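Colleagues,

Please find the record for the two-part complex below.
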Amino acid sequence: MTERVQRRLDTTAARGLIARATRGDAWTVGLIVIFAALLVFTKLLRSSYGLDALAIGALPVAFAAVGQAIVVISGGIDLSIGSVIALTNVIAAVLLMNAPELSVPIVLLVLLIGVLIGVVNGVLVVVSRVPDIVVTLSMLFVWAGAALLVLGTPGGGSVDWLRTLITGTLGIELLPRALVVLLVIVGLVWIPLRRSRLGLSIYAVGSNQLAAFRSGVNVARTKVVAYALAGFFAALGGLALTASTGIGTPIPGPYLLLSVAAIVLGGVSLAGGRGGLLGPIVGIYILGLIRADMTFLGVQPAYSTVLQGVIMVVVVMVGAYLTLRRAAT
Amino acid sequence: MTDLLLEASGVVKHYGAVAALSDASLAIRPGEVHALMGANGAGKSTLVKILTGAVRADGGAFTLHGRQLAVHSPAEARRSGLVCVYQEPAIVPDLTVAENLALTGTPVDAFRTQMADLGIGSLDLGATARNLPLATLRIIDLARALAIEPDVLLLDEMTAALPADLTARVLEVISSRRGGTGSVIFISHRMLEVAGLCDRATVLRDGRTVGVVEVAAGAEEQIVALMLGPAAEDGDPALTPAGAQHGGAAADTDAAPRLATRNLKAGRNLEDVTLDLRAGEVLGIVALEGQGQDELFDVLSGQLRPETGEIMVDGAAVAFRHPADAIRAGVVLVPGDRSTALLMQRSVRENIGLPAIASPRRWGLMNMGSERRRVRAAIDRLQIDTRAQAEARRLSGGNQQKVTIARWLESGVATFLFYDPTRGIDIRTKIEIYQLVRDLAAAGAAVLLLTSELDEIQRACDRAIVIFGGRVVGEMPAAAADAPTLLRAAHGLQPAGGTA
């Protein structure tokens, strides 16, 4: 009797927790379902495939997606995010190779550099009044060039504790360390932010700049903060790359386009003002799993890329349709 | 039935599970001006969109000139002789006027003739639409529609936000079409215009046609009764001027004014405005388009810095550099265009919570508990229908306007700047907003209320000032501020026996 009551209490509590975690966001719930289905499918294809491999590979781009999502929610877009990852990646690799004993201050320094880069991006957007897409496109080249100045060819080094931090799992296979690190860091930044006036300002500015201004929001400052946060997460992406590869690579990977793909898939409106961070993270994992499945199925890489694009369009289309239907009833 | 020009019957339209129209009908005789009336959400817009091919009906029969009519796009409707002038001008902002005409294949000579009739004789067709004032764009839109001699012209809130002089010309031109071969379907919330202009009126309520009224003396009450439905027929305060009862009784004339300006000059149009707004009073402002009222509201709400002159709050000079400064001083703006005040994609809670950002602990954590209580209290106080509270854009226009007001209520705001707050709002909500304005004043707030509907001065205000050419040209108690007096002053004419 009491056991049954207790169980019911547990399920309600769990449901409340999920509902609160997703903020009634059916889109994210849908993505998690897709992800779970894909995971089962992948396990059937190759039982030895572990989530930890996926999590490590996805970590840099997941941080990029989180940073991109914050800027896009605030009504902007950061095209320089891939270059910033490359720049922070090589700075970290060079410094860690030369002074591995100072690894903790170096990590903090790299994060600070990321924030400063973001502030530069944001201030340029606000002060120049040139559209975000133009400013950050220019900065894409600037930061990419800076990365090459720091390190002409792949090289540098890393330290062991960084690699250990993100390798392996926490006991069970469903909890890869890389995923836990990602969720803990994003949670530590985002949850307080979401409940603060600053967080509301970010959504407000992205949703309707004039209305936000008239409501007393400092639009310029909010935008700079959004870009600074993007820089911070890009630096985390750079550090994750250093940790997982052990070196610095001055030529940026496809992080920019993947970050945009992930936020679109994750239910963040490119028009700004809508979406969260959980969706894009799940989006990155889904894209990664699809790529892995294609490899296991022996699909030619060329077809595999086409198929990834098709799947993205279909998911966003079906998602939008379901959201509309839900809104209508 | 063959003598009907346009007939629609049994029109049904669902959006998901919501029925926008359940049984609408409309019968238009040739040469008549026919009003389509109904509260917000009654289905007027949906019916218009169906007739002009912008939206497809789920059911219903349509005939034009007795022949079956089926339109699937606005272009097709145009070719069939059905043209609509929407509330938002359908003009591409980055093209010139001439290019906009070419886009719809409008004959330029006919267009020029119509523009002249509408009171704008000289218009540079090479001007980019973006640079023209809204009122001119609406006139261009109308002239463009008239130029192709449509069988049925649909006018959706044509006179909303038009200055009084242009409104008069537009009504004249519409009236002159009466008795011709074409007909006009006229949609307006302004009862006086409908009474003066239309032959018959079809009234919609909750997606159904509930009556067709011959417009004659006394028809207004009949129309309002039909629009409101059985629930609200008795003692309609909308038709009883209320201003005289208030008469500025509550205003405390001894203390320093809550908000005052001295020789304010700003922007292109505001030249020299001095006014005093006292606690407990509602001060109405009347002005034709572009007389400096926009700049006045921008300056008072902290969006624009004045060139010269000063603003005083409770007797102390202030300098607003940002809306946040004005909000801190308790001076807040409620704009008429809700889309410039609300975060349409965000929830009602966030919209009400947002202005609290201006409080000193700007970036700190919000106290979610007190936040929720504040929002709850505001929603209860204004009886906001929150069934669609996940996103503000899904609320009706009236409920959106209530949210824009509600957000300020719990933060102890002392001075409200209402800029045409009832634009495009149905009559029931208008009455609620008048009442709310009176309640705010009674509770000690000072209210500045700009209106484009002259009768609102006597319904909601204690006192009125008229602005013309960027200057205050008339000031009078609400009791003396009848429509003719206000209109004369708004045109810069000397009020009979007054001082300008």
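Residues 19-23 of chain A have pLDDT under 50 and may be disordered.

Comments are welcome before we finalize the supplementary table.
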